[in-house]
Amino acid sequence: MDSSKLLKNVYGIDIHFEDLVYQVNAPKQKEKKAVLKGITGTFKSGELTAIMGPSGAGKSSLMNILTGLTKSGVSGQIEIGKARKLCGYIMQDDHFFPFFTVDETMLMAAALKIANKCVSMKDKRSLVDYLLNSLKLSKARHTRCSNLSGGQKKRLSIALELIDNPAVLFLDEPTTGLDSSSSFDTIQLLRGLANEGRTIVCTIHQPSTNIYNLFNLIYVLSSGQCTYQGSPQNTVRFLSTIELECPAYHNPADFLLECVNGDYGNHTEALTNAAKDDRWRYDQQLMPSDEESQVPATPPTETQLAKFNESQAQAQSQKKPFTKLDSSKDLARHTYPPAEWMRLWLLIGRCHLQFFRDWTLTYLKLGIHIICAILIGLFFGDSGSNATKQISNVGMIMIHCVYLWYTTIMPGILRFPSEIAIIKKETFNNWYKLRTYYLATIITSTPVHIIFSTVYITIGYLMTEQPVEMERFVKYLLSAVVVTICADGLGIFLGTILNPVNGTFVGAVSTCFMLTFSGFLILLNHIPAALRFMAFISPLRYALENMVISLYGNQRDQLTCPPTEFYCHFKNAVTVLRQFGMENGDFGYNIMMILAQIALFKILAYFTLKRKIKTN
Ligand SMILES: Nc1ncnc2c1ncn2[C@@H]1O[C@H](COP(=O)(O)OP(=O)(O)OP(=O)(O)O)[C@@H](O)[C@H]1O
């Protein structure tokens, strides 16, 4: 299949909004603050539209409303309908997984966005090649995303969203951070995409004259009101209708913004009234001559407009560059996504690859686990079999629990904050559902926790001469593994409700409390009855109790009392259990309690992550 054909078949979608009001709660004020005050406008297919205006004018708010990112506090009419599914939103900052190359990122996006039944893998490959060529990214195809320049990142963001050929593309400040030549290239590229029939809308700050003239429509906002909607070429004429004369050799875009900012007096009301006339969007130079009206500073007359529309319609029917999207049947004909289970499979693959590429997550962490396990083993020596060292041995068990807990909760806290911008972009642009991604991360991270804690515990267990009995070892290991997974769940939960600084602080404080109530530092029956419930919510308590009863319970043989000792208080294993008030400990119950907490944390983390993605 010819890749360019896949991209040329664009459905034309016009976006129309009327009396759009957006209100937000203003702090310390009874009344709501109106960010958008009843604006009306039309962004047409085949056109490149710029939303401009001073900072705080409401540009991003309008964009977020049109894309569907903001829903509450919005009233008025928006006609975009089923086409929302065919929209791509390129946010201001470009976020990618740093360990993948441009090629891998593109191929993964193609696999996630388009079903194999719809476009074969071979065609997806050539589609990716075609897009990389068109966006001048071929030379960077084997470069990791973290090493791309600002302009390349922006082009990659555009290429990624073009894969499933969206009919509408929204871009938030696509030229921010780019030099003038890259900015021009980017806007020229967008103009080319619009010419193919797409509706392209972007916000922009202070464009140069060259860039300004590339747009088909300029939509200016000032304090939530529309102060100009027209072609760039009509700007000077429009302003002169309210006696604002643009000096010669002055950039019309700059002059327009200066007028809107009030640099030449307060003309907001006059501008808002004049901007209601949307005929300024028609380029005067394209208008047929009309003897009745030759006044230069006016929008086209009705007669001119009728003639113009007629000639445009004729040209359109001859060229027929794109089909108008009328029904949901048309939507189905568009490239369709793979089934969600297939996306799950792809995301599991991506998470695995990411895990192996990030050496700090794999080799470094595994190496540190091994070194620490050996060091702790050397410190405690024969504590597992020597009856005189049993208090130290229980202390070592606690160290194992706390080590696994701490080294898991902290990366858990930091994991999602670093990925949230990417997840937000990808879920919003329909690459996959959040629950699919979340499930993929659980499926990928769980075996990793199992392997890492198994390596750590096995070394520690063998070096400290714990009983060589399979059942005791398996129970001991199982308790360590579940508490590690529980730490990951709590870490992710904290990472999705708090920022990294507060998250690490709360994580550290909560660990201290859990440690206090683990049953070693203060015995359970020494805690005041009213506060004892705290111990029952500490996963570390359940894990420690389980690890202790695995080693000392179930009628263990007597421990070795060195011949140099006259009396060994902990010669009988049950004495250790009694000493720590764990003689009635129930292994199954403890495991169930930790599993219940894992489920609780993981479910809560899903909903907090969902909330965070919506509000961020
Ligand atoms: N959820 C919200 N709660 C409170 N105020 C809000 C909210 N969303 C937007 N605003 C306010 O509305 C105004 C417009 O914000 P918006 O981000 O749309 O401006 P903008 O034109 O995109 O600005 P900039 O060019 O600086 O990005 C600002 O004063 C902003 O503080």
Automatic annotation (TrEMBL):
<protein>
    <recommendedName>
        <fullName>ABC transporter domain-containing protein</fullName>
    </recommendedName>
</protein>
<keyword id="KW-0813">Transport</keyword>
<keyword id="KW-1133">Transmembrane helix</keyword>
<dbReference type="InterPro" id="IPR017871">
    <property type="entry name" value="ABC_transporter-like_CS"/>
</dbReference>
<feature type="transmembrane region" description="Helical">
    <location>
        <begin position="587"/>
        <end position="609"/>
    </location>
</feature>
<dbReference type="Pfam" id="PF01061">
    <property type="entry name" value="ABC2_membrane"/>
</dbReference>
<feature type="transmembrane region" description="Helical">
    <location>
        <begin position="505"/>
        <end position="524"/>
    </location>
</feature>
<dbReference type="GO" id="GO:0140359">
    <property type="term" value="F:ABC-type transporter activity"/>
</dbReference>
<keyword id="KW-0547">Nucleotide-binding</keyword>
<feature type="transmembrane region" description="Helical">
    <location>
        <begin position="437"/>
        <end position="464"/>
    </location>
</feature>
<keyword id="KW-0378">Hydrolase</keyword>
<dbReference type="InterPro" id="IPR027417">
    <property type="entry name" value="P-loop_NTPase"/>
</dbReference>
<keyword id="KW-0067">ATP-binding</keyword>
<feature type="transmembrane region" description="Helical">
    <location>
        <begin position="393"/>
        <end position="416"/>
    </location>
</feature>
<dbReference type="InterPro" id="IPR003593">
    <property type="entry name" value="AAA+_ATPase"/>
</dbReference>
<feature type="transmembrane region" description="Helical">
    <location>
        <begin position="363"/>
        <end position="381"/>
    </location>
</feature>
<feature type="domain" description="ABC transporter">
    <location>
        <begin position="15"/>
        <end position="248"/>
    </location>
</feature>
<dbReference type="GO" id="GO:0016887">
    <property type="term" value="F:ATP hydrolysis activity"/>
</dbReference>
<dbReference type="GO" id="GO:0005524">
    <property type="term" value="F:ATP binding"/>
</dbReference>
<dbReference type="InterPro" id="IPR003439">
    <property type="entry name" value="ABC_transporter-like_ATP-bd"/>
</dbReference>
<keyword id="KW-0812">Transmembrane</keyword>
<dbReference type="GO" id="GO:0005886">
    <property type="term" value="C:plasma membrane"/>
</dbReference>
<dbReference type="InterPro" id="IPR050352">
    <property type="entry name" value="ABCG_transporters"/>
</dbReference>
<dbReference type="InterPro" id="IPR013525">
    <property type="entry name" value="ABC2_TM"/>
</dbReference>
<keyword id="KW-0472">Membrane</keyword>
<comment type="similarity">
    <text>Belongs to the ABC transporter superfamily. ABCG family. Eye pigment precursor importer (TC 3.A.1.204) subfamily.</text>
</comment>
<feature type="transmembrane region" description="Helical">
    <location>
        <begin position="476"/>
        <end position="498"/>
    </location>
</feature>
<dbReference type="Pfam" id="PF00005">
    <property type="entry name" value="ABC_tran"/>
</dbReference>
